[in-house]
Amino acid sequence: MRIVLAFITALIVSTAAPADDWPQWMGPQRDNVWREKGIIDTFPKAGPKVLWRAKIFPGFSGPAVADGMVFITDFVTSADINDKGNFDRKSKFEGKERILCFDAKTGEFKWKHDYPCSLTISYPNGPRCTPNYDNGKVYTLGAEGDLFCFEAKTGKILWSRDLKKDYGVKAPLWGFAAHPLIDGDRLVCIVGGKGSVAVAFDKNTGKEIWKALDQGEDGPGYSPPTIIESAGIRQLLIWHPESLNSLNPETGAVYWTFKQATVNGTAIMAPRKLGDFLYIGAWMNKSALIKLDATKPGAALAWKGNLRNSVYPVNNTPFLEDGHIYGVCNDGELRCVSMKDGDRVWETYKPVVGAEAQSGTAHLVKHEDRFLIFAETGHLIIAKLSPKGYDEVSRWQMLAPTALIFGRDVAWSHPAFANQCVYARNDKDLVCVSLAK
């Protein structure tokens, strides 16, 4: 009887704590929190075990991990795509974008789809958006607006759209980079143009359901669609270079608009909510903390950032916790600021590049009482962040930085955490590394 009970207990525990997937950008709940148990506390001297490695080509998109598969996109070209200038889109880079599928445990190649693609954007290093897996389908958006829905197991195309052609727009300066959002039966994308900055498609057919908002001179921006709940109502946030907008996710009707201009269209991070407050921040000291109305859809300014305070992220989304904002600023400084007034509590360059670096980038993922930080140097770092300071526990060189940007080599893609592993890419390799105790 004891043996039977022990077996039943073990079975219950094992079925109650399955391995997590990371089916989209920023994880299952799109909040940069990894909830799996049994993860190492520090890296061994020789580093954690690399379970497999697959050869890929350039891209800024991160991997998605779901249903035993890993999905990644890249760009194959014979052209020299490195360090072409922050605002240079005069050249055309011919090649093909690819969607690749691998077995999550073994790295065995499963399928691919490729299509001709001419990149006319600045930093033509390939696709930006992380694939999005949902209910047996995987959705991808290329740097020039090629939108696909595939059968995840086989790679069969179920439907596709050419966003530039369908909506009469050109790719934003830095490409289509706002990660699409699945919300119910809708796939919400940032497109651009008049009345179509945000477009909701039927995720099963690709048919347009609704479209909303006009683009300004600086384009539609790069900030991904984000769902929040406030005043008991689900709201879809669309932040473009002129304003932050709250929409009815089912119809696209606008609930409220908060004016927040950016410089050069750099609405990039996803708006972050904590309690009744929303935070948005961008390059060149553009940020705001917004107080949400608790009784009806609405928003008002709490404070705006200035030269001396706040966080101004470029290629990363900050993390909000216990009344503080943690994020990487314009020049690679990791900052902690108070949500009360935006005042800086501390900052350090150590985890990102180690010194001032234009558009320095690191991605912060919370795991239990610490953070896993993937720095642009290719290091994976375990650290504790609190108002008391930055406490680095362990670091390991996971990948080489391979994309030449601002005269330095970087690894800017967001990793995925699933199956007690980290999945990460540079411009040459996709790796799966065990982080299990």
Architecture overview:
The protein is mainly beta. The chain contains 2 helices and 34 strands. It has a domain at 181-267 and 269-298: Beta Barrel (Lipocalin).
Instruction: State which percent range the strand residues make up.
Output: 35-45%
| Unreliable residue runs | 1-17
Helix content: under 10%
Largest sheet: 4 strands, antiparallel
- What is the topology, as strand order, of the major beta sheet? 1-34-33-32
Terminal Cα separation, in Å?
A: 31 Å
- The count of β-strands is 34
By secondary-structure content and strand pairing, the structural class works out as: mainly beta
CATH class of the domain at 181-267 and 269-298: Mainly Beta
Radius of gyration: 21 Å
**Mean pLDDT, all residues:** 94
Structure keywords:
globular, 437 residues, disordered N terminus, 2 helices, 4-stranded antiparallel beta sheet, Lipocalin
Question: How do the helices and strands line up, and which of them pair or pack?
Answer:
Layout: H1 2-16, E1 50-55, E2 64-66, E3 69-76, E4 93-103, E5 109-119, E6 132-134, E7 137-141, E8 146-151, E9 157-162, H2 163-167, E10 181-183, E11 186-190, E12 198-202, E13 208-212, E14 226-230, E15 233-240, E16 243-247, E17 254-259, E18 272-274, E19 277-282, E20 286-292, E21 299-304, E22 319-321, E23 324-328, E24 334-338, E25 344-348, E26 362-367, E27 370-375, E28 379-386, E29 389-397, E30 403-405, E31 408-410, E32 416-418, E33 421-425, E34 429-434
Antiparallel strand pairs: 1-34, 2-3, 3-4, 4-5, 6-7, 7-8, 8-9, 10-11, 11-12, 12-13, 14-15, 15-16, 16-17, 18-19, 19-20, 20-21, 22-23, 23-24, 24-25, 26-27, 27-28, 28-29, 30-31, 32-33, 33-34
